[in-house]
Amino acid sequence: MSHGLSPRPATARKSSDLKGTIRIPGDKSISHRSFMFGGLAAGETRITGLLEGEDVINTGKAMQAMGAKIRKEGDTWIIDGVGNGALLAPEAPLDFGNAGTGCRLTMGLAGVYDFDSTFVGDASLTKRPMGRVLNPLREMGVQVKSAEGDRLPVTLRGPKTPNPITYRVPMASAQVKSAVLLAGLNTPGITTVIEPVMTRDHTEKMLQGFGANLTVETDVEGVRTIRLQGRGQLTGQVIDVPGDPSSTAFPLVSALIVPGSDITILNVLMNPTRTGLILTLQEMGADIEVRNVRLAGGEDVADLRVRYSELKGVTVPEERAPSMIDEYPVLAVAAAFAEGATVMNGLEELRVKESDRLSAVANGLKLNGVDCDEGEASLVVRGRPGGKGLGNPLGGEVKTHLDHRIAMSFLIMGLASEHPVTVDDSTMIATSFPEFMDLMTGLGARIEQAETKAA
Ligand SMILES: O=C(O)C1=C[C@@H](OP(=O)(O)O)[C@@H](O)[C@H](O)C1
Ligand SMILES: C=C(OP(=O)(O)O)C(=O)O
């Protein structure tokens, strides 16, 4: 299992109105990048609001293994970075656990150095495709040793002088875009990434903040051309990480589906490359009030007041997928309580996340009485307002396949279903949202973790 723990099932039961105000922990994407860029930049980086999930902590350990000094004083993480181009060869394999982001971005960052770096992870990460990052690195002159199908474990060795490339990202992936840009940091000349469909832009914004010479041009069709001048200087920064919109999705959907609920979620990142779920839920009739919009550390941040709502099925525009890619599992849960059908297309990337999320969601919904159709890259969910007949009276367990978002989504489902919903494991929730159980039960959610199953 992940993190060497035995599985720990959990059950969610029909709950009465959820009430209260919560503050969501830091954004995972920004937290990974804060450790990476802080570890790389010359001088001191100070980070508050960092997500202390297992995924991010593994990124911090990898940066330490390559020379960064990282410590925590009170609530502030303080990093003494090595300086761009000055990472040290790691002495042991870098273990990224469950984290695609940590692993793929660090492959770009370290892979172009003229030393060996080896990348390993848990059973979920070991199944995920790495070719999408290894192929552009090969073009830059990196030697790659990988398991069959370009899976982990992977060992990389960069050339004496990496080759700057122009790379058109073939799928909508911020991880691939970022890996190429991070490789460009230690490559002479200009590395260019062409992004036909915009994905989360944290790498671009944060690298500019650290002093990189990076420009973005967007043409009339929305195609973005990102140019990075390699081997420039990066300087330590002060970062306050805003709350994670992907974690926000769980209490948000729970308040929408549990009758009588009224909750407030503070300090949520509202970067438009991340807000597709909020927009979609509003189109479904969700009562989400966006309050106190402000700018913090160059990002839009707001508080959300969310009240129980009678939802209606919609067709989600396919081009919105990148701005809500991690939120489809919990959107499917919201759809299970909506009147009519919700149609989701353009979901091919869901098949290569921590699990095959498309089939994990469809199987979990069916196990709990939801009428749905899984297509090659689509999902149609026909909802049952009020949740009558939903859940599994026999205690059948949703298979989570080491996927935190599957576990959390189905626990949210159980809060408004007639019968309980049980997931076969909840330990991996700690990879992205260690506070999930406490925050949810604090709002009044009836979720219980069972004893750990014998290994
Ligand atoms: O760059 C990032 O921080 C992320 C990019 C997305 O992955 P892909 O690039 O594979 O779409 C997302 O699913 C992941 O949770 C975080
Ligand atoms: C896909 C995710 O993360 P990663 O790719 O970093 O494992 C996620 O958190 O939903």
TrEMBL record:
**Which keywords label this protein?**
Amino-acid biosynthesis, Aromatic amino acid biosynthesis, Cytoplasm, Transferase
Q: What is this protein called in UniProt?
A: 3-phosphoshikimate 1-carboxyvinyltransferase
Record function comment: Catalyzes the transfer of the enolpyruvyl moiety of phosphoenolpyruvate (PEP) to the 5-hydroxyl of shikimate-3-phosphate (S3P) to produce enolpyruvyl shikimate-3-phosphate and inorganic phosphate.
Gene Ontology terms, MF aspect: 3-phosphoshikimate 1-carboxyvinyltransferase activity
Residues engaged in binding 3-phosphoshikimate: K28, S29, R33, S173, Q175, D326, K353
Q: Where does phosphoenolpyruvate bind?
A: K28, G100, R128, Q175, R357, R405
Quaternary structure, from the entry: Monomer.
Q: Which gene encodes it?
A: aroA
PANTHER family the record matches: AROM/DEHYDROQUINATE SYNTHASE, PENTAFUNCTIONAL AROM POLYPEPTIDE
Q: Which organism is it from?
A: Sinorhizobium numidicum
